[in-house]
Amino acid sequence: MATPTPAGFSSEQQWSAMRSLLAQAGYTDTDILRQIGSRSIAGLSRLSGEDLARATADDSVRSILIRLFLLGRIVSAQDAAIALRPIDLDAWIDAGLLGATDHEVTSRIQLLPFMGVLIATDPPPRTGPGTEPPEDWVMGIGGSTQTLAALTVRRDVGRMLDVGTGCGVHALLAARHSGAVVATDINPRALAFTRLNARLNGFDNIETAVGSFFEPVVDDRFDLIVSNPPFVISPERSFVYRDAGMERDGAVELVIRGCAKHLSPGGMAFVLCNWVQPEGEDATGRLRSWLEGSGCDAWVCEVGRLEPELYARQWIGHTARDSGQALERRVARWVGAFREQGIAAVSSGHIVLRRRESDTPWFYAPPGPFPETFAGVVGDRIVSLFDALTFLQSATDEQILDTPLAVPPDARIMREFAPGQDGWEATETRIVRSEGLLREGRLDDATVHLLMALRPGSPPREAIAHLAAHSGADPAQITAPAVGVVRKLIERGFLIARPAG
After folding, report:
1. How many angstroms separate the CA atoms of 125 and 321, rounded?
2. Which of 167, 236, 276, 305 has the most CB within a 10 Å radius?
3. Is residue 295 part of a domain?
């Protein structure tokens, strides 16, 4: 039996009234997180029920709305009628958004404010044995949602594609800077929620298409593609949002190859994914093979890696309510399947692509372990990274020497001292970036002197000449090593190249 999906209001006037009352009540991620004492909507489940009850115990409209739509609590019909004005309570019930029994009201959706949009989705599943969510359950906003939203570049584009859209959050975020958005999913209920959310937020540029991955857009091209696919590597076929029904990381391979095929020239794709570390094989080489002949530059960022048992426990714990022997049998089944498929570990991270208009694409996987972390919205920083790696690929040493350089404003050089026999002694010098893509590296004295000699907007050639003049060194002998250092600093984002044109 299919899980019912809320139909929503029948008139734009009612949708507009709903948006207005939520905005006036301060039903926004900023105001709600401040009130309940959480850093993110995804972190809501880590707060205790007592803390949440205390934070929303008053009779303000926002507290009533939080109890009803965010926490899934029972609210009296009287309180609900007050909070939901000017829309009549019966209209909310007829729209399938609320359920009523006697003098009490409950919400049939969870309503999540996120990055300036409102997302309606299925309520969180109940806890306890035998209470796993249905197969077509539509997941809300988790950590992976926040990660992908922060990674995605927010620049005006013509056409955008959200592959495996789920509740439509990435389609909605992109609708604000895209001429047209296409959202695909194999789960019809997910697309129903996407359409509901488009109306809730007042977007009329989102089209939904049911089908597996790229099947609904077989001949189309897009300027931006985003995908948070069912990337979990699992022997189960329990949940549409999680399990793709393919061996190993076949779903991720399909998505990466599909993104490359469907990008317009200059277009970018952002994919959150897991991929396997096979026994005795080079995982990076496997990922590289997915993109051979694709015409796309690729940045692979691994942020974590788990052995099979830990990976199984992590993902089983997301949905299963098993414990004791039942849990151990399930874990053993996953681990056994991984062993049969030759999986030594599973990596998590993201892959970003940009279609080339000319020249040979590059493939960049920073050396581990897990060198890339980030804070805040970093889409523009990723574009800058792609520009830097593209410049380095074709630039000769002479071009490097004559290219004006800039130092990012958040860069800092830090020297560490420790007590020694003769007093404080310098032990380590580091360079860090503290905003966006967070970077850190060790510096030797020669590199510190080179960085100190660089003037904003000046090329390395001038700094090298300055160093040679003050040290008495032969410029010809220090130029080649200095160019190598400059290349590495540009690659890691500690210097920004400003090539002419």
Report:
1. 10
2. 167
3. yes
